[in-house]
Design a protein that fits this description.
CATH superfamily of the largest domain: Macroglobulin (MG2) domain
CATH architecture of the largest domain: Sandwich
Largest sheet: 5 strands, mixed
Radius of gyration: 43 Å
Number of domains: 2
CATH class of the largest domain: Mainly Beta
Strand order of the largest sheet: 3-11-10-5-8
Distance between the termini: 127 Å
CATH topology of the largest domain: Immunoglobulin-like
Order of helices and strands: HHHEEEEEEEEEEE
Number of strands: 11
């Protein structure tokens, strides 16, 4: 073999060796990448499994906590703090349920609280058991006391009911009543027209005139009278700057259009409300309602064309 052939063989062997080395390196790189991918997948699956497990524990604790809250409420105990804890627990459940990429430190914080919640449930079990024992003892004592007081309680209750009925009757009987309710259209020139139907474009000011019926049961003195002007669609005409406000009627807060303070003298005195139109009014049937002292004095209606 000549020297030239020997050199060519050496180059060929060196090239083959390099190719083998490159193949081995690529194989090693693929193996390492594959192992890394497997480990990452395993870590991801383990994290998801931990999330599911922790969520299941929190969900179970939430159900048990609902039961404790119910039992304590039945024992007339304050459960505001437990309701706050329950709300916080539900937020943590939602975090675990919707945040697959939840930060590790936040996840560990929630996971550590599982034990705190479990301890809380045990403490509440002991508290409920103690309260039940106390209530059982008190129940026996209370039953005998109730038997002794029932007769007296019934008598007092009957007297209160009779007093309340009488008070309501007097209150209703002494309520102010509006009579002779009239509506008047007042133009800019001062022309007055009494009617129950008016043309909207000619109405500048509406005057509501009525008398207060005499009533010997009604004490003489200062009275507040509220007027509600109700549009065809049911809304009350309302303007704070013009004196509108609210008052309570049948345990409900309602709006009034105007208010007037009078000195009731039981003389069938006349009261006048003047409502100045501030803009175009809707056409249709309007209702005027009058109230005083928590009672409805009367009502009437007119039509705008």
């Amino acid at each position: 073999m000549t020297e030239i052939q020997q050199k060519q063989n050496n180059k060929t062997n060196l090239l083959l060796a390099l190719i083998v080395i490159l193949v081995l390196l690529n194989g090693l790189q693929w193996y390492l990448n594959h192992r890394s991918s497997q480990k990452n997948q395993e870590l991801l699956e383990n994290k998801e499994l931990e999330l599911v497990t922790t969520y299941a524990k929190l969900d179970s604790i939430s159900t048990q906590l609902d039961q404790k809250i119910l039992e304590l409420q039945q024992l007339n105990e304050n459960v505001d703090s437990l309701l706050a804890i329950k709300a916080e627990l539900e937020k943590e459940k939602q975090e675990l349920k919707t945040s697959k990429n939840i930060a590790q430190n936040r996840y560990l914080e929630i996971k550590d609280k599982v034990e705190v919640y479990e301890t809380l449930l045990k403490n509440k079990d002991a508290e409920i058991a103690r309260l039940n024992d106390v209530n059982a003892t008190l129940l026996d004592q209370t039953i005998s006391l109730k038997k002794e007081k029932n007769t007296l309680k019934d008598e007092v209750s009957n007297l209160k009911q009779e007093k309340q009925v009488m008070s309501k009757k007097i209150n209703v009987a002494s309520a102010l009543k509006a009579i002779n309710l009239k509506f008047e259209q007042v133009s800019r020139s001062g022309r007055v027209k009494e009617d129950t139907e008016f043309k909207e474009r000619r109405l500048d000011q509406l005057r509501i005139r009525f008398n207060i019926d005499s009533n010997p049961l009604t004490p003489i003195g200062a009275k507040s009278i509220m007027l509600r002007l109700i549009e065809p669609e049911g809304a009350t005409l309302y303007n704070v700057s013009a004196g509108s406000g609210t008052f309570e009627y049948n345990e409900e807060e309602i709006f009034y259009t105007a208010k007037q303070e009078i000195l009731f003298d039981n003389s069938t005195q006349e009261v006048i409300f003047n409502y100045t139109k501030e803009g175009d009014l809707k056409k249709g049937k309007y209702t005027a309602e009058l109230y005083s002292g928590g009672h409805k004095m009367g009502e009437g209606s007119f039509i705008l064309k």
